[in-house]
Design brief:
single chain, 351 residues, alpha/beta, QueA-like, 2 domains, six-stranded antiparallel barrel, 8 helices
């Protein structure tokens, strides 16, 4: 009988100085570690086009990050921090929110945010989230008064640089709903995308609105007991058709990030007659070893937090031992880790 996989199997020690808390001067200046089984090659991100082939399909996540973090006070005068996780009703101005305060909000309690420019009332709970009803359209107020929700491990306040650099260059303004960036995509600038197109690499888009749960540690040691957070995902029919055509023509599907991977693999579960078709809805797919990937052939990703579901996903893709080897190498070679860190190109494990 195979022993159960444990969260502790995906732990590692990272020196604090390797956490990239600020972006590099230019997006494509990052390093790129190419992982082919147990073979590692140190490259620069600008080398990526040379590693892909004409007829391959690169799939990106076109979500936009909301300026989802707000600060203010409760009606009792206590300080409060609100992170808008998901807008559940635009017309009624309702949102699921994380709320940090010395004491939890009570039903009917009012919070005043952004120096008095925003007011919201607590009108219910959804598991660990609070349901807040805002006094004005939420997205407009967030764009005007909110802060970019940079990761907690940055250990700093968001600044004007984050407003640009924690957003992809190809985000769709109409898809403003994420509270974290699809960070593997942050390395791409317009020049790199054009170079890929010139090489004959096709580019397509999916949408996954990233939730704050992406940073949450796995709290159950036995992975089979972990309940994955839900995130909205959409595979358009146009992208599904491109994937089907690319596969039929012998090209490879390169997912940019774990969000794209989760979207494509969720859609694979809903395929019709063996083909991908449009998918829209929440996904709670939890990918960890062993897992048989149905769509993705190669994966571009950043270096992930210890014990995270993202580290488990890439371990399923490239092989757990190969990932441990790659991470040990990256630490020894002083790669930069996490959201503003360096990138990896993973080839799918054959085992």
């Amino acid at each position: 009988m195979t022993a159960p996989l444990l969260a502790s199997d995906f732990d590692y020690h990272l020196p604090d100085e390797l956490i990239a808390r600020h972006p590099l001067a230019t997006r494509s200046a990052s390093r790129l570690l190419h992982v082919q089984g147990d073979t590692l090659t140190d490259l620069q991100f600008v080398d990526l086009p040379n590693l892909l082939n004409q007829g391959d399909l690169l799939v990106l996540n076109d979500t936009k990050v909301m300026k989802a973090r707000l600060f203010g006070v409760k009606d009792t005068g206590g300080a409060v921090e609100v992170l808008v996780e998901r807008i559940i009703d635009h017309d009624k101005r309702l949102a699921h929110c994380h709320v940090r305060a010395s004491r939890a909000l009570k039903l009917g309690q009012t919070v005043t945010l952004a120096d008095g420019n925003i007011r919201a009332v607590m009108c219910g709970r959804a598991e660990n989230l609070f349901i807040l009803q805002f006094d004005a359209p939420i997205l407009a107020d967030l764009e005007k008064y909110g802060q970019m929700p940079i990761p907690p491990y940055f250990e700093r306040t968001a600044d004007d640089t984050d407003d640009t650099r924690y957003q992809t260059v190809f985000h769709n303004p109409a898809k403003q709903a994420s509270v974290a960036s699809p960070t593997a995509s942050l390395h791409f600038d317009e020049q790199t995308l054009q170079t890929l197109k010139d090489r004959g690499v096709q580019i397509a888009f999916v949408t996954l609105h990233v939730g704050a749960g992406t940073f949450a540690p796995v709290k159950t040691d036995n992975l089979s007991d972990h309940i994955m957070h839900a995130e909205y995902a959409h595979l358009p029919q146009k992208t599904a058709d491109l994937i089907n055509t690319t596969k039929a023509g012998g090209g490879q599907i390169i997912a940019v990030g774990t969000t794209v991977t989760r979207t494509l693999e969720t859609a694979h579960l809903h395929r019709v007659n063996g083909k991908l078709t449009e998918f829209s809805g929440d996904t709670q797919i939890f990918i960890y070893p062993p897992y048989e990937f149905g769509v993705v052939d190669r994966l571009i990703t950043n270096f992930h937090l210890p014990k995270s579901t993202l580290l488990m996903l890439v371990s399923a893709f490239a092989g757990t031992d190969n990932i441990k080897h790659a991470y040990a190498h990256a630490i020894a070679e002083h790669y930069r880790f996490f959201s503003y860190g360096d990138a990896m190109l993973l080839d799918k494990s054959s085992s």
